[in-house]
Design a protein that fits this description.
Layout (H helix, E strand, L loop, with lengths): L1 H18 L2 E4 L5 E2 L4 E7 L8 E7 L4 E5 L1 H11 L2 E7 L2 E7 L9 E5 L16 E2 L5 E4 L4 H5 L5 E5 L4 E6 L7 E6 L5 E2 L3 E4 L8 E8 L7 E11 L9 H36 L32
Parallel strand pairs: 2-9, 11-17
Antiparallel strand pairs: 1-3, 3-7, 4-5, 4-8, 6-7, 10-12, 12-15, 13-14, 13-16, 16-17
Length: about 300
């Protein structure tokens, strides 16, 4: 019985090789966002590659889409997704220019000849490594602290507690660290905590995010922390500036709303007091015998108006 099973398996393998199974090859090394990538489709035996095409799976639509010149031009116009297809003897090559994380596939090559047993290759996804720019903000849960996170200068009162966090989006969770300029200490965390800050705590602090798999993929962000003396006005701190900016923006919106309301009220008042036009000096009498009048059998010589 085992002999028959082995013979059946060998027959299946031979059929696989004689049918010309399609093989899809991708990049061998790690791929970074923006890299130029090529996919190569070929058959393990001589086959008619003119009937083979590439397909890409849409995760949103949950279906495979054929990649032909029309579809590729659509991707270029709408998604800046530049593709190119070249047919060469015994293979076809799909080129992806400036690959992005959302264009990682899966891909496959398919033969139009449905009578073949193995008319489709295995699907292939391309792992794309990336890291976005760092965002640094003062922790504390306040909406305004996060909204004004783009500020490079953090000004805090003497003796205040400071907690600054940096974050980014990446293909893998980055490794974070903080260091201070002209200092030899390093904090292995995404958060920098300074308790009861002193004047000597002022300086430039740099957050470093390192990709765990790709050594050349890292981002840095430097902020300046200034500790204010005790006699500094409250509005010189970053929090005070945020309050002033928020108050000014609110006052501007209130003033704009009041101006619009006054303008609308004045228009409504003019429409109510405005009567019908009665300008007799502009009226011209029309006589029955004049050219402007309508034919009439009356001999009245008095003006109509």
């Amino acid at each position: 019985m085992k002999g028959y099973i082995m013979l059946a398996y060998l027959a299946l393998v031979m059929l696989h090789w004689t049918q010309g199974a399609l093989i899809l090859k991708g990049p061998e090394g790690p791929v970074l966002e923006g890299d130029y990538v090529t996919l190569e489709c070929l058959a393990d035996v001589e086959s008619n590659m003119s009937q083979v095409h590439f397909e890409k799976f849409s995760k949103r639509m949950q279906k495979w889409f054929r990649l032909e010149p029309y579809e590729m031009s659509f991707y270029r116009r709408c998604f800046s997704y530049d593709l190119d297809l070249n047919r060469e003897p015994g293979r076809i090559v799909l080129s992806i220019f400036a690959i992005q994380s959302w264009t990682n596939g899966p891909y496959r090559c398919v033969s139009d000849n449905s009578s073949e047993l193995y008319n489709s290759s295995d699907s292939l996804s391309i792992p794309v490594h990336y890291m976005r720019d760092l965002s640094v903000y003062r922790d504390g849960g306040s909406y305004y602290n996060r909204y004004f996170s783009s500020l490079q200068d953090l000004r805090v009162p003497l003796g205040d507690n400071v907690e600054v966090e940096c974050s980014t989006s990446a293909s893998e969770t980055p490794e974070y660290s903080w260091k201070k300029e002209d200092e030899d200490w390093v904090v292995l965390s995404s958060k920098l905590k300074l308790k009861k800050v002193r004047i000597e705590d002022s300086g430039k602090y740099t957050c470093i995010a390192q990709h765990p798999s790709i050594s050349r993929l890292s981002k840095t962000r430097t902020i300046s922390i200034t500790v204010l003396p005790e006699d500094a006005p409250w509005y010189e701190s970053t929090q005070g500036r945020i309050i002033l900016m928020t108050s000014a923006a609110g006052a501007g919106l209130l003033l704009l709303a009041m101006s619009v309301s006054i303008c609308l009220c004045r228009r409504a008042s003019k429409r109510k007091t405005k009567g019908p036009i009665d300008d007799h000096s502009q009226k011209k009498p029309i006589y029955t015998a004049s050219v402007e009048s309508l034919p009439s059998t009356s001999g009245d010589k008095q003006p109509l108006v």
